[in-house]
Every structure is written in C-alpha cells, then in structure tokens.
Amino acid sequence: MIEVLPADGLVIVAKRECHTCVLVEPVMQSLDRAGPLTVITQDDPAFPSGVGRVLDDQQLERSFHLNIEAVPTLIRYEGGREVGRTVGWDRAEWTRLAGAAAAGDGLPAWQPGCGSRSVEPGVQETLIARYGDPGLKSREIAVGEWDDPIEACFERGWSDGLPVVPPTDERILRMLGGTDRKPGEIVGLIPPNLAPCTVEKVAINAVMAGCKPEYMPVVLGVLEAALDPLFVLHGLLCTTHFSGPLVIINGPAAKAVGMNSGVNALGQGNRANATIGRALQLIVRNVGGGLPGGMDRATLGNPGKYTFCFAEDESDPDWEPLAQRRGIAAGKSAVTLFHAEGVHGFIDQKSRTPEELTRSLAMGLFGVGHPKLCDAGNAVLVLSPEHYRIFREGGWNRRRIEEELYQALKRPGRDLIHGAQNVPEGLPASMADKIVDKFQPDGLLIVRAGGPAGLFSAIIGGWPGQRVREECQAVTHEIR
Amino acid sequence: MNHTSKLRDPTAETSPTRRARLAPPPSLDGKVVALMDIGKSRGAEFLDRLEGHFKAAGVTTRRYRKPTNTKVAPAAVLQTIAAEAQLAVIALSD
User: Fold this and answer.
1) Choosing among B7, B15, B18, which should be mutated to test the A contact, i.e. which has the most A CBs within 10 A?
2) What is the predicted pLDDT for the residue at B94?
3) What is the ipTM of this complex?
4) pTM, full prediction
5) Are A306 and A160 in contact, with CB atoms under 8 Å apart?
6) For A431-476, what is each residue's pLDDT tens digit?
7) Are residues A165 and A183 in the same domain?
8) Range of the domain at B50
9) I want to staple A210 with a disulfide (CB 3.0 to 4.6 A). Which of A2, A237, A275, A361 is the partner?
10) Per the CB < 8 Å rule, is B12 touching A288?
11) Contact A195 B14 (CB under 8 A)
12) Residue A39 touches chain B, beta carbons under 8 Å
C-alpha cells in the first residue's frame, strides 16, 4: 500500500542519477526547512539527504499514478488537489510555486531535467499492467505461484510444440504498441471454427510466437491476406496434403523489421522470418481451433507448418519483385501467401545460358506433386543469386523467364496418361492427344532469395486445391 | 492459491479456463487398470482390496509403486503406466 500524500504542501519527484536532481538537492533541503515537503525518489531511498519525508518509489507506483514524465517534477497541492506543476529546474517557476525558499542561490536560472524512470522504454506497459487498467478484454488465466508459465501454456494446448512466450499483460501492451489499430477491432473470422479474431488476440499470439512489437503491421497484413476467401485457409488447414501457408514479404516492411532474404533465407536464425510465420500458425491453432489430428488432417505435414516465411531479395533494380508482378505499386510493402509443401532443392552447376537453365529448371519443376501430374498444385521457384545471374547476363528479365519456363513446362499428354511409362499414376487417357501445361498460366511464382554462393535454387510445390483457379489461388495483399 | 502470474487467453474462449477432466470410459472391457502405490503406509492394503474387486469383475490390473512417497513418481514409472494401462487408481491415503 503506498503512503498517502499530504493534502497541502509540495511534492518533488526525483532520482539520484539525474544531474539536475542532484543540482537542486540544496533547494529540496531548503524547502523541507520551510514547510511540508515530500520527496518521491525513484532510484535511491537515501536521496536527497537532509529531507525529512522521502518516499521510496523504486517500484515506480507513485510516479505512475502521478503521471511523471521527467524529473525533477515539483507539484504543489492545496486542499488535496494539484494546483501547480513544473518540470526540470526553472528558478522562476519553482519560486512561483514554492516561494523564496526555492530560489536556489548560486544555481543557474534554468536547467532541463531527465526522463522519469517510469517512462523508460518498456517500463510504462509494465506499470500499466501492475498498477493501472490495461484495458484488455481477453480473459485472465491465473498461473499458480510455483508453476512455470511456459509449461502452463503447453498444458493448455496453446503451443505448436515449441515453447511459447507467456502472454502477460505487459508483453501484450507492448505488442499492441506496434500498431495504431484498436485492440477491439475484429480482423476476421479464423477457420476452422470461424472464431472472431481481434487485434488483441493477434497481439497475444504474436507475443507467444516471439514477435517484436514492430512486426505487428506485418503480422496483421499476413493474417488479412490469409483470410482472403481466395486463399481458402480452411481447406489448407484441413487437407491431408503436406501444405501449409508460405509467407513471402516484399517492400520496405521487410527491411524495416530486419527480415532475411539472403544466406539461409528459407532456414532458421532470423527472428522476423521465424516468428511472423509462426504467429499466423498460432492464430489458426489458438483462435481458429485448427489442431493437428483435429481439423488438421495432414497425412505427414511438413516442417514449414511451424513457420515458413521469408523476404524477397530486391537488391537488383532490374528485377521486378514478386509483389509488383502481382499488382502492388512499387515502394509499397506486401505479403504473398502460397499453399506450400516443403522445400525441394534444385541443383544445376553446369548450365551457362538462360536456355540451358530453363530446360534444366523445367525438369526439376515437373517433379512437383508427381512427374506425371499436372493438377497437383502450382509452385514457387526461389531463384538463387548465382542462377539468377545466368538469366540476367543473358538479358532475360522476370517476364521473359516466366514465359520461357511456361513454354518449357508443356508436355505431350501421351507421356503423362495412366499407364504411360509403366506408372499407373497420371492423367486421364482423354488427354493423350493434348499438349499439357504443368502449371496454370500464372501458377509459377518466381522470387529471388538466397546467399551469394551456390548454383542451387529451391522449388516449393503447391497444393492440389489450387487446381480450381476460380476457387483457390495464391494471394497478394498490401501491408498498410 | 496465491497467484503470482497472470496470462491472457490466446484462444477464442469457447472452452472453460480450467482443463476439463477426462471422461470416464463407458466400459472397462479390454482395459488395463494401473494400481499405483505411492509408498504410504497401508496403501498396498487398500490396493489389494481393489485388485480383488477388479479381478472379480474380470478387469485386468497391474501394480506399480513409487520408490518413495516423499518425491513425485519418476518419469520412467509414469511412462510405463501410460504404455501398459489405460486407467489408473492411485492409493493416496494412509
């Protein structure tokens, strides 16, 4: 219980580490001799010396309730009400509020103060959580005194199998500080249960995923894209197929949050890549109720269902980034979501011309789903810098690469029908006389990423659900 | 209980905050019941009586025992019970 301040008199909030507070220590002593004075000290109960009533506020509760932004702060109370306040050292102001005893002979006329400990980064949210009203609507879950909060999250089924960051009020408030959107705003209905998901629920799951507050606009953009009916998130969750959402970020937002588009771009080690993708999966799990073995019926799944998120390498000004190719204005940030199975490595260290590499890539891309199937999903091709260099030096831009690969991915149906090549899997016999495309016309998404060394690219197969183009596609949304 | 930590629910809040107890099985047919002696005095006596009742009802039982009543059961004992039985009775009383 904090001590009650006097109804009449002066209150000064100070801290020893503030040079201005130390400067005015004689003034505080003078005011203490002149009348009722209470000093609230933020960091050292022994400071200031020579003052009768010093309240220890190392827990900052008093500073929080008094809304202190800088120290020293001098407040005058009359009849239980605050009637005047000044910040820093200003002889004219101090003497106006406190009289001649505050003259501070020998001191400069004016000196600015320091920031209050109660408004240091991250502290404000903790103080709101401890002493104020956080304004959060999600119900509270009490964890026992001796229980480990991380284990409590596991026991409640809130985890994807890896430890989550316990969603405390201070962490949630910090996360909400990363967006201007209201906590109560409903972002959408999360499948499979079609549960309403507020910005606050997004923040809670982003905390658990390990996101930093500045990731929030990206996480919200990813979620809104995932809820585009054309992305068919419900079906992607429920499928027996391997697929899960792949998140590709373009534009300044990727740089702003430090996403990786270079060495090991599809792998581990970058917080933004790892946690933004994970946040989406945790929202589906926790808000939507999409649990493996429940509505998630994947036969095998894939490791990307923990998280699968990276940024495109936009360092080459001649390269048209994926988001711009898909209609987003240059300079804007965007998310592209694709129904992705795992990464299939593609090796070609012999091709030296665009034509050779195109034919070679087509051989790899034919393997998506099954070499004899043409409706087993589209694909993402992640071109590494060394493979891209072959195209660039040959004068091929994105559009040319797409068109040449599209042509190279046509095959005679007779090679693909049931029984052809002594393999039952394949297309209906009625396709025997047709020329068949491996992917839909815009079904191959090409994106640049990866480290500078290695004549490797990555093929990421899609989902058979993409075969009905009017019902299911990759989606690209601007991040606002 | 003195709660020192408070979390916010990340779910759609469609289920109770307390974890629901597992529903009892509709029948004990084909089930194995673990009889767990926590090592306190006369616990074995209580389990002997229960074992007799289960046997009379045609239910298979297996006996398990903690090494000491002063510590939680070793993981190996719990894993063995989980692998070999579908239900468990723990003799808690003196």
Assistant:
1) B7
2) 60
3) 0.89
4) 0.88
5) yes
6) 999 999 999 989 999 999 999 999 999 999 999 999 888 889 999 9
7) yes
8) 32-91
9) A275
10) yes
11) yes
12) no
